[in-house]
Structures are given as structure tokens and as C-alpha cells.
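Handout, page 2. Input:
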Amino acid sequence: MGVIAVTASGRAAARRLVAAWPGEAEVVSGERPADALRAAFTRHSAVVSFLAVGATVRVLAPLLAGKHTDPPVVCVDESLRFAVAVLGGHHGGNDLAHRVAAVLGCTPVVTTASDTAAATPLDSYGADLGLTVADPAPLASVGTAVLSGDPVRLEGAAGWPLPPLPENVAPDVPYPAAVIRVTDHVAAARGGVPTVVYRPPSLVVGVGSARGVAAEEVGAVVEAALASAGLAREAVRAMATLDLKSAEPGILAAAAERGWPLLSYPAAELAAVDVPNPSEVVRAEVGTPSVAEAAALRAATDLGSAAELVAPKRKSANATAAVARLRPRGRLAVVGLGPGARDLVPPRALDELRRASVVVGLDQYVAQIRDLLRPGTRVLASGLGREEERARTAVREARAGAAVALVGSGDAGVYAMASPALDFAGSDIDVIGVPGITAAVAAASLLGAPLGHDHAYISLSDLHTPWEAIERRIRAAAEGDFTVCLYNPRSRRRDWQLARALDLLAEHRPPETPVGHVRNASRDGERTVLSTLAEMRAGGADAVDMFTVVLVGSSASRVVGGRFVTPRGYRWRE
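Output:
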């Protein structure tokens, strides 16, 4: 990334960026600022210009080639108030503006229409899945139709975990003003309607060959196999072959010329693949009755959740090729929203919420983040006590090919939805875990540093765990001298468990042991109380409910300056 600065203020800010991004950003200098700016634009993958937008545009205008090839450019004003995404908004410019703003403390300015409308931008639609635009020319007109609310037909997207599009974009639009098509077939647009075509990475080409085959012959039979089924080369994700052929120069060269990775498999694995055109001659020679078909199907299954052969093997004198189509894996993001405050929601969680086409969660948690969802996101919310249903729903939607976010409070892996969801999820979907700030951590930060040494989390809810097991865990934590964080401490119907837990802990703790409890940590109505074990046992527990986290110190915990502290145990040196 090239950084251009002229004034003292700009140079100081440029140094801050370089320090924040070591090895990624460098200051570019020249005899004149215009020379430095042109050099940065032609030599770097992105540019941050501490020059006026007008001056930057005038210098770069003769160099502009197109939004898909020009590096993103962000301009920062002299007073460091704004970071303006000038070029390449959807190709890194908008993100760069936000990154610059985060370092310099200024406001990012983003003017691309889809971002201001919170809609998924079409020029990066599915880019993280490997989708590419066959022809960028219709993007503007189709994007205008999407943002204007015109009827737009979406074709071929089913099964791909793509981000949401507004509700005017649907597969059953009979008379569309524009079309969005996801296909690996070579097909012309129909009817003169503006159509943007995306090529998904859905194909795997399997190849086999005689020893010493020429790259030209391998390439020719591959192209013929694709053409025979009307398939686009741009949709090929990889080439695959037998491991004995993986070092064959002609195969390596043919794959490299097309920019495809080469995957290889042992004969025993390929022999286990059911193919329509096996050959006993091939089996006798290399140990598997199929190379091209079996390798294509095996690789496509590895890369997706299932595969089908769409172009059977095609032969030349010394090479064979076949093509398989993979069924993509759905996407399940298990998202922790933190303890409740919006500024404690992790940035990665925000990204996953905007990425998801389906959001599943407890109704009260979904309500917290509904405003963050992109237009067209399908929301499946349910009430308390339906955790298993939510977990099964999220996995089922992901298996159908959707991009799903399963949301919960705190961290999704701590007394939340990650565990039940992953109990049902198999290898046929991709799972992304997004960590969140737990209720215990949020409460601890308000009390002081109660978790400074070894600690244990224990839930007092016996709805799914027998009380006898919970009591054994409390005794073990008490005997082990852990600081103990108690979740689900007390409800209307469960009003004795907390008192019993405190009694068990008191068998191994002095009465003055610090105890803190926090209700609604980081939410409206937040209340923090610091007391002792004796005071809690004498009636302090009556103020505790299911919205409260209780932390009981270890024997080493103490109150310092009105704060609950569990010493780390370091021996400080003079």
C-alpha cells in the first residue's frame, strides 16, 4: 500500500499508518507530490492520499483503466476529519476507508449506492466463495434495478451460500427488468434484458494420460470435454488426477496455464469411486478402473458436499478428461453477540450478520441486531426453551445451501448455541465460529479483576443436568480453590440452588471472601454489587435472578480500593 503526504500534518499521519501496518504500508516520495501519487498508483495494490480529492482525481484521471483493475484509493483531508473512499469502493476502497479511519480516529466516507442502502454489492457478490463476473458491463444497469426496487430474477443461486439480496430479487419473477444468473454453463443472455452472469467455482476436471504426454494434448482434451457439455472454463475450480500422474510435465503445464490447482489421489481411493465408464485395461495398468472420471468425482466431493459427473471421459491419443460438478457446502456461522451493549458486539460478528442470508436465534437476541441485517435476510426467531429446535433449524438451512448465522448472547460456545448446533452438524457444511464477550467477562470487568487466576464456570440450572452432578462440580471447584462464576443462579421456580451452592463454597472459604454479582451487565438497568460470602448467605442472594452472574472468589481473592481482585500469583522482582 502506497501512502502519499505533503504537509507536516499529513506526513505525521502517514507515519501513524505505516506504524500501524508494518510491512503493509510504505510512504512513497517523489520530486513532486503528483509524481509520488502516480508512482504509488502504478506500483501498489492500494493508495492512501493525504491530498484533496480533487487534486488526487486530476492526477490519477489519465491512469484510470477500470474499477476491476484500478487499485483502491482513499483520500484523507488535512484536518484528519474524513477518510474518503474515492476509487475501488467494492474492491477494497470502502474497507480501506474504514481501516484508515480506525487508525486516525476520523470518519469513513462511503458513497457507493449499495453500501449506503445496506444492500449486498453486486460487483463483489459471492466473491468470497470464488464467484466471478463473466462480463462486468451489465453490473451498473442490473445494480440500478436492484436498488430501485424493480423486479429482478435470480437464477441458479439455489444451493450456494450467497449473501442476501433485497426482496425484489427472487427466482420466480416472470417479467424481470433485469436478471442475475449464477451458472457454470456458457449461455447467452436472453430477451435483451440486462443480465449479469456469475461463474461459480463448481467444476473439477479429471485427467489421465500416457507417459510423456504434451501439455497441448492435455489442454485440448480438457477444452473438448468442457465444450461437449457447454461448460465455462471460468467455472473450473481444480484439476485432479492419479497420484502417479501428478508429476507428469504435460499435466502440470496444462493446469498451470489455466491457473488451476492440481489435486491427486492414490489408486486405491480412485478405485473406490463408482464411475459410469470403468476400464479393466486401466485397472491392470495403474490399479484403478478409472482415472479421469474417478479423480473428477473424488475431488469434487472433497471440495463440496456431493458431486455428479457432467461430462463423461473424453479421449485423445494419449490423454483423457472428464468433468464433475460439485454441490457446494452450506455455511453456518455460530455468532456470539456479547453481553448486550452494541459496542461490545465483535466486528467479526457484524460481518457475519451482514453476510448471512438466514438468521436463526432467540427472539430477544434477534431483536437486538435486526437493524444490522441486510435487506432480504430471512429471520427465523423463536422463544425461550426451544434451543434444540433452533439448532436443528440452523443446520437444516445450512445443509440446504444457505449462508446461516445462528446467534446467541455472550460467546456462542459458552452455555449457548454452538454446542447443540455442532451436535447436529456434519462435514457436509462449513462452520465458522465467532467468539463473543461472555457474561462472566463482562461482569468481571465491572467488579475489578476477579478472574485473575484459575476459575471455573458452573451453571446452576438443573433443567438438563441433574443437581447431583452440579453439586459434585461445585464441591470440586471449592476444594480446588477456584474462583467460581455461577451462571443461571436463581429463577422463580429454582430459588434454593444458589443458597446451596454458597453453603458448599463456604465449607472451603472464609466468610470475608469477596462475592460480586452483576445484573444486566452492559445493558439497560445494569447493577453491580460487591459483598462477601457471609453477606450473600445472610440474604444477599435474594436480589439475584436469571439476568445475574455471581462470582465467588478463591481463598486468595480480596478487595483492593473497592475492587474485587484475585491475584495472579506473580512474585514481583525489584
